Write a sequence for this structure.
């Protein structure tokens, strides 16, 4: 069994931030009293920051779209994740016609077996049938405790109506499951979009205008009503706008946001690269961003996801109408490095950074304290960062299959070393050949 002593680093998790030693035995963080191996490897971490491995609660590796698949599959996407300090990803099952939920989860687990990160799976429910609802207790027993719905994408047959969502929420409340919602009101989007398609207004900026902030606010408000009536715990994925956040806060919902909504804005649609920024929800006016930051810094928004779903630039560039541009942005690799650079620049609390990028997801998705913590007995997932390395010139080092990054003009600080369950995945910035990740069974907390 390998044993490491990380000596004298600044060890930061969601609960403490102190210069100390950290002992790793095999796959676990271990109390120092248990040091019994005279050959344990000692690594001097003076001046370095040590954080728990990042948990990205929202990725889409190799998902089917109209014209193929998103570019990063579990193998390439997880490589890129590890490079950015992400040791666990939570991805989504895909429910095909005629499939049971259990089958859709098993199929997704098979694909995810290529992942270098440990992985959990949220169950995506894209139609409502009695037999599917009856599968919920079995899924929960097998570690699938979070169930995702869309309030839009009717044309892709992914949407549930609010009435259907309420039925699902009632079942989930009974069994202790968590409802996750992509909250954009479809009626608002269809009404707004028709106007632009009808007038032949096709550029990327109309993508944003066709999915207005009001669509997010309306959906969050309606979902808030469902949460109150059913008692179901609800988590809104990728909250994109200030008004959406304020509505979610009013409704007392759990919320996630993503780097694209914190660092980019709708003016990016006007740049020569406008098509590249098309994702749903779209980028929003800059004015709402300070509310999103307030939400994150106060932890009313508890988690940072990425919605990782990149494409090749030529697949997005050469499209003449916004409604045909593949939707999605890459982000799993750059999320923590961007946030770390920002937190260091602003001198924000680094324990808070550990909570929003790791601990809070572990708690919400039933993985704590196995993940997201440096408690003795937790998995030894960690990243070591030298805070003095320059925060620029990193774009050429990215490992995602995509040739384009939405954040390339921003400062970012990447980890030098990444460990997942006691195994080095990155050392001195270089990816090491390592074991695949394991399925993470969630438990209801
Ligand atoms: O544009 C995006 N975000 N594509 C991925 C699917 C989704 O809605 O999260
Ligand atoms: Zn979504
Ligand atoms: Zn998504």
């Amino acid at each position: 069994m390998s044993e490491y002593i990380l000596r004298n680093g600044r060890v930061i998790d969601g609960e403490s931030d102190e210069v100390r030693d950290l002992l790793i035995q095999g796959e676990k963080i271990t109390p120092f009293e248990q040091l019994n191996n005279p050959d344990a490897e000692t690594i001097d971490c003076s001046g370095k920051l040590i954080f728990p491995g990042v948990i990205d609660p929202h990725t889409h590796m190799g998902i089917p779209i109209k014209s193929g698949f998103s570019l990063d599959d579990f193998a390439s996407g997880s490589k890129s994740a590890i490079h950015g300090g992400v040791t666990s990803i939570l991805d989504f099952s895909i429910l095909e016609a005629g499939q049971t939920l259990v089958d859709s989860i098993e199929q997704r687990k098979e694909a995810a077996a290529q992942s270098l990160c440990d992985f959990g799976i949220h169950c995506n429910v894209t139609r409502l049938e009695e037999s599917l609802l009856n599968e919920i207790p079995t899924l929960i027993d097998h570690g699938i405790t979070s169930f995702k719905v869309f309030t839009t994408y009717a044309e892709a047959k992914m949407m549930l109506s609010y009435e259907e969502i309420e039925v699902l929420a009632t079942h989930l409340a009974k069994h202790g499951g968590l409802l996750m919602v992509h909250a954009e009101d479809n009626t608002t989007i269809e009404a707004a979009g028709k106007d632009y398609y009808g007038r032949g207004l096709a550029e990327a900026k109309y993508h944003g205008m066709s999915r207005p902030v009001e669509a997010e606010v309306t959906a969050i408000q309606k979902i808030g009503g469902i949460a109150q009536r059913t008692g179901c715990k609800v988590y809104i994925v990728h909250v994109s706008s200030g008004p959406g956040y304020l509505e979610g806060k009013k409704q007392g919902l759990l919320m996630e946001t993503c780097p694209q909504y914190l660092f980019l804005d709708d003016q990016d649609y006007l740049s020569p690269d406008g098509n590249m920024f098309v994702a749903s929800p779209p980028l929003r006016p800059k004015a709402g961003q300070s509310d999103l930051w307030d939400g994150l810094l106060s932890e009313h928004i508890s988690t940072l996801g990425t919605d990782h779903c990149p494409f090749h630039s030529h697949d997005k560039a050469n499209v003449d109408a916004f409604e045909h541009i593949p939707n999605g942005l890459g982000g799993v690799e750059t999320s923590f490095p961007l946030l770390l650079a920002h937190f260091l620049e602003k001198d924000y609390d680094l324990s808070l950074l550990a909570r929003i990028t790791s601990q809070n997801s572990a708690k919400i998705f039933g993985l704590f304290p196995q993940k997201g913590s440096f408690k003795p007995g937790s998995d030894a997932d960690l990243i070591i960062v030298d805070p003095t390395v320059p925060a620029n010139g990193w774009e050429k080092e990215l490992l995602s299959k995509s040739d384009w990054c939405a954040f390339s003009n921003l400062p970012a600080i990447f980890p030098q070393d990444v460990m997942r369950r006691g195994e080095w995945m990155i050392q001195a910035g270089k990816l090491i050949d390592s074991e695949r990740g394991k399925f993470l069974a969630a438990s209801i907390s």
